[in-house]
Amino acid sequence: MTTQFTDLGLIEPLLRALAAENYTTPTPIQAQAIPLLLQGRDLLGIAQTGTGKTAAFTLPMLQRLAAEKIQAAPKTARALILAPTRELAVQIADSIRAYGAHLNLRHTVILGGVGQSPQVKAMARGVDILVATPGRLLDLVNQKHVNLTGTGVLVLDEADRMLDMGFIRDVRRIVAHLPRKRQSLLFSATMPADVAKLAQDMLIEPVRVEVTPQATTVEKVSQSVYFIEAAGKQSLLTSLLRDEALTKVIVFTRTKHRANRVAEQLSKSGLPADAIHGNKSQSARQNALERFKSGSARVLVATDIAARGIDVDGISHVINFELPNEPESYVHRIGRTARAGAGGVAIAFCDPTERPYLKSIEKLIRVQLTVAGAPPREAAAEHGDSRPIRQALQERPATGNAPRGNREAPRPDGARQADSDRAPSRRRRRPRRNPMQKAA
Ligand code: AMP
Q1: What distance in angstroms lies between residue 26's CA and the mean position of ligand 1's atoms?
Q2: How far is the C-alpha of 322 from the C-alpha of 320, rounded, in Å?
Q3: Domain check: are 226 and 332 in the same one?
Q4: Is any atom of ligand 1 closer than 6 Å to the C-beta of 325?
Q5: 20 Cβ below 6 A of ligand 1
């Protein structure tokens, strides 16, 4: 029988809040982690965004804090959640607000890029839960506006991103301010050595919960690739976006400059789009995100860092205008669609210089992307003909593992063929061999 939220030992005010969010059943990480966290165990969670990890740590935290009936002292936080990006911090705070709607707990957010005085003011009385990005929090701790010596719960979210973004030292400095006796949780999608070391130093006899290996998210997303010259990408994008089945679309670029250019060009073509990246002010990023969430802008153009942790439900399509040079980023990108069990569509544009990136991506995800047979007619017309794409198709070296005999254009409406219709060779996963396992 499937586990229900009522089976996990959660109190009624939380169950009511979950019902209001229309969550019917816990995700695997929630089902596994919540009962253990309610007991006060430390936890190492190997999970990426989209698995429901935020609720997995927020719900037991709220329940335990509510049960203790303690008031936070001035400048203190009873629980601390560290997140690598401002967007993720804000989204975690949104979740706390939603799940804690019927509990009388106070929370606040501390992040960089905005004035510090409102944050200092919010901390003056003390809070039950503090969500923060590391740099600004460390500043405020050093200035004695925040006191973490009594903080009994610590969550480190997206630890591998903290590492990528150079925050690990700040994180360690912050952790040093917390008492040794506390409950600690660390979440990470991947486990590079530095994160494993941090986990070892930070957690005491943790339970390890691992969900959604990368391939699972990857499998839920219908993926295809257009081989196209760089110069043809903008008109292909415009042309794809004319299809209103693409209801909520994130377009990824590698650079901030390109994100701006793509958004400007789309807007000129009558397709309102915002760009978010690290050079935009916090309020510009937040406004763009709100417009996208509310549906007043259908398209958001983003760089990888800016999109980190963006939690917007119902993203119908992810378009990789430029392929990332780190294959893991591709998995993060396409994970924006296919949230919490839903399917999604990812379309990649690959120019001849990006072939090596595509190769690394396909190697990592162990899936070969479906090749889009031809660009939509409009894009081809704008380019005179579709020769570059055909050339690219012919140039593409055949691989021994997945012959591409039967090319099928992706359906931007997201409709997929029934599995039985699909040639297995095109989306075949190669079984991973466990070197520790003896052959039977
Ligand atoms: P997260 O992995 O925490 O970023 O969550 C991914 C998305 O799944 C968020 O949009 C949540 O609102 C949603 N979500 C989390 N738990 C559930 C659940 N049990 N049922 C349905 N949606 C959920």
Answers
A1: 9
A2: 5
A3: yes
A4: no
A5: no
Examine residue 73 and state whether it is found in any structural domain, yes or no: yes
Ligand 1 centroid, distance to 339 Cα (angstroms): 7
- Residue 45 Cβ inside 6 Å of ligand 1? The answer reads no
280 and 141 belong to one structural domain: no
Torsions phi, psi of 204, nearest 5?
Answer: -115, 120
pLDDT value for 123: 98
Give the position, in ligand 1's atom list, of the atom nearest the Cα of 91. Answer: 4
Residue 130 is part of a domain; what is its CATH number?
3.40.50.300
Residue 55 CB–ligand 1 contact under 6 Å: yes
CA distances to 53, 57, 162, 188 from 209, in Å: 11, 12, 20, 11
The pLDDT tens digits for 118-161 are 999 999 999 999 999 999 999 999 999 999 999 999 999 999 98
- Please give the DSSP secondary-structure letter assigned to residue 147: B
Same domain, residue pair 227 and 203: no
The first and second tokens of residue 53, run together, are 């990890």
The alpha carbon of 311 and the centre of ligand 1 are apart by a number of angstroms equal to 9
Mark the ranges of the chain whose per-residue pLDDT is less than 70.
1, 212-217, 308-311, 338-343, 373-440
Q: What span, in angstroms and rounded, lies between the C-alpha atoms of 65 and 103?
A: 10
* Per-residue model confidence (pLDDT) at position 374: 53
Q: Which domain covers residue 83, as residue numbers?
A: 5-210
Supply the Cα-derived Rg of the chain in whole angstroms. Answer: 23
- Is residue 169 a part of any domain in this protein? yes
Of all atoms in ligand 1, which is nearest to the CA of residue 54?
3
Whether 60 and 137 share a structural domain: yes
203 lines ligand 1 (CB under 6 A): no
Residue 431 lies in a domain: no
**197 with 311, same domain?**
no
245 in Cβ contact with 316 (< 8 Å): yes
Which atom of ligand 1 is the closest one to the Cα of 23?
20
Which residue, by CA, sits nearest to atom 14 of ligand 1?
Answer: 52
Q: What is the pLDDT of residue 304?
A: 81
Residues 393 and 348 reside in one and the same domain:
yes
Domains in the chain: how many in total?
Answer: 2
Give distance in angstroms: CA of 95 to centre of ligand 1. 9
* pLDDT computed for residue 342 by the predictor: 61
Atom 15, ligand 1: residue with shortest CA distance: 52
Model pTM score: 0.60
Measured between alpha carbons, how far is 159 from 353 in angstroms, rounded to an integer? 32
